[in-house]
Amino acid sequence: MHILDIVAIFVCLAGIFIYVNTYFIKLPSSIGLMLMALCLSFCILVAGWLFPDFIIGTERVMENYDYSDVLYQVVLIFMLFAGALQIDFKKLAQEKWPVLILATASIFISTIIVGVGIFYILKFSGIHLDLIYCLVFGALISPTDPIALTSTIKKYNLSKRLAIQVSGESLFNDGVAVVLALTLLDLAHTGEDHRISFWDVGFVFSLDVGGGIILGLILGFVGYRLLKYIDNDQSELEILVTLALVLTGAQIATMLHISAKQAAVVAGLIIGNEGRGNYITSVTSDYVFKFWSLMEESLNAMLFVLIGLEMLVITIRLDYFAAGFFAFTLILVARFISVGIPIKLMSTFDQHHFEKHSVTIMTWGGLRGGIPIALSLSLPEFEGKDIIVTMTYTVVVLSILFQGLTVRKLLEYSFGVKLEKPVNAGHH
Questions:
Q1: CA nearest to 288, candidates 221, 222, 241, 218
Q2: Contact predicate 376/389, CB 8 Å
Q3: First-last CA distance in the chain
Q4: What is the pTM (predicted TM-score) of this model?
Q5: Could you tell me which residues come within 8 angstroms of residue 105 by beta carbon, excluding any fewer than 6 positions away?
Q6: In this predicted model, what pLDDT tens digit does every residue of 283-305 receive, in sequence order?
Q7: What does the pLDDT look like over 203-237, one tens digit per residue?
Q8: Half-sphere exposure for 58 (CA within 13 Å, toward CB)
Q9: Which partner for 28 in 148, 206, 254, 423 could form a disulfide, CB atoms 3.0-4.6 Å apart?
Q10: Is 256 exposed, middle or buried (0-12, 13-18, 19+ CB in 10 A)?
Q11: Candidate ranges 86-95, 279-288, 328-337; pick with highest mean pLDDT
């Protein structure tokens, strides 16, 4: 089977998933797509039991094509850029310190708690995985997908401040987590004894993130100037410029060994907000921003399709799935601590205002989505990758099923309202 055939299948299934979820299931995209991905996985496994040739052929297709480059170089970057494009920077700027502190502190604290915790859980279970790789798992599983949470908050106009804090924190913690995970992985492969210092991590991390931010500022400025001089009726050209900018930026970042993810986030923030306020007319804005919203939704759907198919080639071991279950519980505890400490400190000094139940909402509403899956699948081959991929898959599934389906009830309890219909919808 040709690679174009694979792409065609992914696109077709993604379209079906989005259609079914939009018109029939009517759940937030992450939850609906994951449920359908699970159904797809189950159907494929059943088909494999009934028709062994089918499962063998599907496995061969999955094993013959290396999706890591596509996931790492295209999917992750496009998703981060599209997410940043939708953020209102002016509103985000009002909450810049809570967002930045939460995005960085929560990832570092969560990485340490999860990494050390899972190291001892695996050791107790008789599974050997070096501490450095446990920390890699802790970093890649820490970023959150707030789509289900923020969509409900915005739909019912519960708290604009909380919506900005949650979406902003998630946007930046994606980039921070990706860079941290890859930094730890690089250090693991360079040191034979896997002994690294805090300064090693800090130096490499700062270089990657700092370089990515600088490149993102340059790309954002160049993109802004280019789009400014394009006629407002040339919406297709503006879309092509943004596409070229993202892909070119990714290649430049790869050559310079800096964070392409952070560059995509910064460039998306600049282009999205400068464009929304200055150079793009309402008609063209509709084309450009809806294109990237569609791109994000489609890539997310295709990613979940891949997740469903990936069940065929990941290592199916009961102890791996059990480790993933314990990891899910540990991650919730780590999330509670990692957002609770910064919020408590900021609230103590009265510098920022948080909702009464912010810690609880950010903990339970911080679902794990497609980015941890994509990142785990895009990791280079090393001893222990199977356990990391399996645990990541388990955590994401449990997160979306348990947390995603109960987020609405949590918000009802936290705000003391019954979410039956939008409250004052014209107030947005």
A1: 241
A2: yes
A3: 49
A4: 0.80
A5: 338, 341, 342
A6: 556 678 888 888 887 887 777 77
A7: 767 777 788 889 999 999 998 888 777 756 667 88
A8: 23
A9: 148
A10: middle
A11: 328-337
Residue 82 makes CB contacts below 8 A (sequence gap 6+) with 268, 292, 293, 295, 296, 299
What is the token pair recorded at 368? 């794990």
> What does the pLDDT average to over 308-334?
85
Task: Extract long-range pairs of 414-419: CB within 8 Å, 24+ residues apart.
Answer: 414/355, 414/356, 414/357, 414/360, 414/361, 415/158, 415/159, 417/156, 417/158, 419/152, 419/156
CA gyration radius for the chain?
A: 21
Instruction: Tokens 């890699």: give the residue.
Output: 136
- The conformation of residue 156, written as its DSSP 8-state character, comes to T
| Tokens describing residue 102 | 């939460």
**pLDDT tens-digit profile of 196-207?**
555 666 676 777
DSSP 157-188: T--HHHHHHHHHHHHHHHHHHHHHHHHHHHHH
Burial of 17: CB neighbours in 10 Å, binned 0-12, 13-18, 19+: buried
Q: Which residue type, as a one-letter code, is found at position 153? A: I
Neighbours of 318 (CB within 10 A): 7
Distance CA 35, CA 344 (A): 35
Q: Contact at 8 Å (CB) between 148 and 28?
A: yes
Instruction: Identify the CA nearest to 279 among candidates 343, 354, 224, 202.
Output: 224
Q: Kindly indicate the confidence band of residue 425, based on its pLDDT and cuts at 50, 70 and 90.
A: very low
Instruction: Specify the residue for token string 């890591």.
Output: 68
Locate 185 and state its tokens: 């992985």
Taken in order 264, 269, 21, 178, is the CA torsion positive or negative?
positive
Out of 1.20.1250.20, 2.40.50.1020, 1.20.1530.20, 1.10.490.110, which CATH number does the structure's domain 3-427 have?
1.20.1530.20
Residue 87 near residue 168, CB atoms below 8 Å:
yes
Tell which wins on pLDDT, 323 or 370. Answer: 323
Distances in Å between the Cα of 301 and the Cα atoms of 103, 227, 244, 397 are: 25, 29, 23, 15
